[in-house]
Write a structure and sequence with these properties.
- Helix content is 38%, strand content 12%.
- Helix 1 packs across helix 9 and helix 7 runs parallel beside helix 11.
- The radius of gyration is 19 Å and the shape is globular.
């Protein structure tokens, strides 16, 4: 079975602005690192270009009014009621092509879902995707269109049951909002505690409602959590829930901002632990849709997502980064020589692990009886 990769380079024409932490050029550097390692030339790989999501696809989650405002804002000109839709100076800027940007990222994620549904790919990866904060009628958290929700809706339309696992440092609040009342999506989010970071949600007592009760699972981590905490979450929470739920398709948001050294978050996952998450997802053995997400240390982003695509294709990548890429990256001020970095040696502080103990105990009393039985 082949694996699909979205080529993000035509998206590099868009720009959130020089002072914004969301750097679209990270997509180009990531793709270039994949090329440098030969991943894009593998026989197991085929490449697709992004397409724009249709209005009908976007309206499976977003409101008509919001989409029209975003479309009008596409020229970069000021129009009334931007602020009421979360648009304007700050997190969610209006820039030339903003509608095309959001709809192209979303269309690429939908394409990936379509490739899985058609049986053409066993895994598909849109590194530009994972923009999980956008809400039905407003932009939020650097996210204008919620591509994970639109891709999952495509899978649901085909009658599939979906598990969504999100390891971005920020809670996947937009995805939770979309599927909070259904048991057709098991939504698991591992993130830095909302008491300490945007969007201020994603606590263990948020477990869904109605038919969805028990199918929203939140594991907030205190600042300072290291790889050992993430390993526990994967082994003690994610694995048993996924095995019990047994979805038709696995969708993963692979935000790289939980990695040590990120400029916005305060977690400390290692690149080696990130790779282990990718191996876990691959070995789960279901059609796998991988999406990008956050990540504000560009070197971390490029390495993390290259590791994921290597894992998808069962290629063991050498740690020494090819010289051709290091030269290109240096022009952006990105200096990296090791793909995985050093082995982690530092453990999470006791306060982090004690808080995690309480979270796991809570989930075993609330969601485990529903999902696992």
């Amino acid at each position: 079975m082949k694996n699909c990769l979205i080529d993000p380079r035509e998206l590099l024409k868009f720009d959130f602005g020089p002072m914004h932490p969301f750097k679209i050029y990270r997509l180009g550097l990531t793709y270039a690192l994949m090329e440098a390692y030969g991943l894009t030339e593998l026989e197991s790989v085929y490449i697709l270009n992004p397409r724009e999501a249709t209005l009908e696809e976007a309206k499976t989650f977003h409101t008509d009014g919001y989409l029209e405002v975003l479309r009008l804002a596409d020229s970069g000109m000021w129009i009334p009621n931007l602020f009421s839709h979360g648009l304007g100076p700050g997190d969610n800027p209006v820039f030339p092509g903003v509608y095309e940007w959001g709809m192209s990222v979303a269309g690429a994620s939908i394409e990936c879902a379509e490739e899985l549904l058609a049986g053409r790919a066993g895994a598909a990866f849109n590194i530009a995707g994972g923009l999980h904060h956008a809400m039905p009628s407003r932009a939020s958290g650097f996210c204008h269109i919620n591509d994970p929700v639109l891709a999952i809706n495509k899978l649901l339309e085909a009658g599939k049951r979906v598990a969504y696992v999100d390891i971005d440092a920020h809670h996947g609040d937009g995805v939770q909002h979309a599927f909070y009342s259904t048991d057709r999506v098991l939504m698991i989010s591992v993130h830095q505690s909302g008491h300490t970071i945007f969007p201020g949600t994603g606590f263990p007592d948020e477990i869904g409602q109605g038919a969805g009760k028990g199918y929203a699972v939140n594991i907030p981590l205190l600042p300072g959590a290291r790889s050992d905490a993430f390993t526990r979450v994967r082994n003690e929470v994610i694995a048993p829930l996924l095995n019990a739920y047994d979805p038709d398709v696995l969708v993963t948001q692979l935000g790289a901002d939980a990695l040590l050294g990120d400029q916005i978050a305060s977690l400390g996952m290692s690149l080696r632990e990130f790779e282990r998450f990718a191996e876990f997802y691959r070995d789960f053995g279901k059609p796998w849709l991988g999406l990008g997400g956050g990540g504000y240390d560009v070197g971390n982003v490029a390495r993390a997502w290259t590791l994921v695509f290597g894992v998808m294709n069962r290629v063991e990548l050498p740690d020494e980064i090819p010289d051709a890429w290091t030269t290109q990256a240096a022009s952006y001020g990105v200096i990296e020589t090791s793909l995985r970095g050093p082995e982690e040696t530092e453990s999470s502080p006791s306060r982090v692990l004690e808080d995690l103990d309480r979270t796991i105990a809570t989930l075993r009393k609330t969601v485990f009886p529903i999902v696992v039985g």
